[in-house]
Sequence to fold (426 residues):
Amino acid sequence: MGGVKFIKWLFYFLLVSFIVISFFFAIPISVGEIGISSINLAIGDRTFYINDLDPFGAKGYTNYNNTGISFSGGILYPKILEVASFLSDKIFNQGTTSTTWNTIVISFAAFCAVITHKLLYLIGNLVGGKKTGYICILIYTICPYTYYYVLCGGITNYTLLFTTLITYSCVKLFNFKELETHSAYIKELFLLTISLLALSLLRPSGGIFSLIICFGILAQAGFRNWSKLPLKVISAQRLKNTLIIIAISTALISINELFKTRSYSMAAINGSLDYGGTFFGYSRDLLRNKLFLLSSTNNLLDYSKSVLYKIIFMVSDFYAGINDVRDSFSVTGEESLFPFLARVSIGLFYFIPLSTISILGTITFRKKILESGLILPLIASLAGVSTCFFGCSLSRYYFMFITPFIISCALLLNALKLLSEKTKFI
Fold:
């Protein structure tokens, strides 16, 4: 437990230190600045989520790119920003571009990070024991993006919090022996319901995650033998019926939200399909043109080659993009050198090792992942991240759903650590 306490206090120290430093120095990113002292906090798609002239007014885009189309995203994150605006305006008489507003928004994001940190340890402990839990929080603590997204105050940390909370609830409900009181069941079912609803109301990919979880719960209800479950304080039939009600109701809400935000999703996809920049030095526009020319011929061989090349391009662009090992989409627009170098370094030395070990961990510990209930959030996370296949592949979309991947990575690292300790005595 000494190691866990050290990592916990190290996390708190780093979190507070970065926030305090940002009070004196704004941190430049590819577009704008982050931190308390930033003039206009770069929360990500700021004009989409808040109107600085009317923070309590309509959200979204009107007449997007002169197409005559108007749309908005999920309602939850704009409402969170409205709460920050209310506190800043009504109590401190400060606007949305003030350090007061920045402090409130960053504090909300920091709270999400603290809860996520705690939940990661609890999930790792349930799935693989205390050492796995320790490695989980270590992975999260050393990630630079943990503090970057706090200083942004954007939607990323909220999405990560609720995906982690859902993962925790799923794993806890699968570990029936851990639930010894009726109130424990009520608490876990309540947390699961609230998290599913919140994630559905945040963004479309969150709705997809929630929908997959709901389908998984319904599949469990239909195919699992509930009469043999070791339940102590609640009947199997009652738990089954409750989960069915939760799954159906939240699935309907998720589908409704996906339908309401379909214009936003399609605009994002259509815009992403035309993004420029280079793909490891090769112009994306030139690459698309060549693929189009190959597919336009009447030659079956050329058409087959275009399909194969497009698959290679999409898969490579997806994997490189979510791991931040890619060329920039518009590097010429970046005035600061630091964001570019930081992104590439984090991709090479953090995300690529994490993703590789996570894949190996998932394969190695597939039985444990299946039995612990982690399989359901893992599939849902893959579905959430897979939306990058049809748009711009960026690490923040990966980071939103990274919890199951951290767990599977920690499982393998813990096993390797135990193996290395045993070989010392051979």
